[in-house]
Write a structure and sequence with these properties.
It is a single chain. Helix content is 31%, strand content 49%. It contains two helices and four strands, in the order βαββαβ. The longest helix is centred in the N-terminal third of the chain and has 16 residues. InterPro entries: Ribosomal_bS6 (IPR000529), Ribosomal_bS6_sf (IPR035980), Ribosomal_S6_plastid/chlpt (IPR020814), Transl_elong_EF1B/ribsomal_bS6 (IPR014717).
Length: 95
């Protein structure tokens, strides 16, 4: 398994319960074949530019170990989730 980091931005108009459900959904996808090292909601922040008519977003950062198959599934689900307006998955290659 390799180390990865994913940061995704959730729409600022979601309820707290929806926010928790989205975070738990993505952590469950990672846990199904990988392991979540750290997951933290960084809170609402101003975006550098407007995305889908939103000026703010709720940032979530997750560090995890997983196989490439788990990462592909996570990428697929992130793309089709309506609450997520941007995401980025990077491999942590710190030696």
């Amino acid at each position: 398994m390799r180390k990865y980091e994913v940061m995704y931005i959730i729409r600022p108009d979601v309820e707290q319960e929806t926010l928790q459900a989205v975070v738990e959904k993505f952590n469950a996808i990672i846990a199904n074949g990988g392991e979540v090292i750290k997951s933290e909601v960084l809170g609402k922040r101003r975006l550098a530019y407007e995305i889908q008519k939103f000026r703010d977003g709720i940032y979530v950062l997750v560090n995890f170990n997983a196989t490439p198959e788990v990462v592909a599934e996570l990428e697929r689900v992130l793309r089709i989730t309506d609450e997520v307006i941007r995401h980025l998955i990077v491999r942590d290659d710190v030696a």
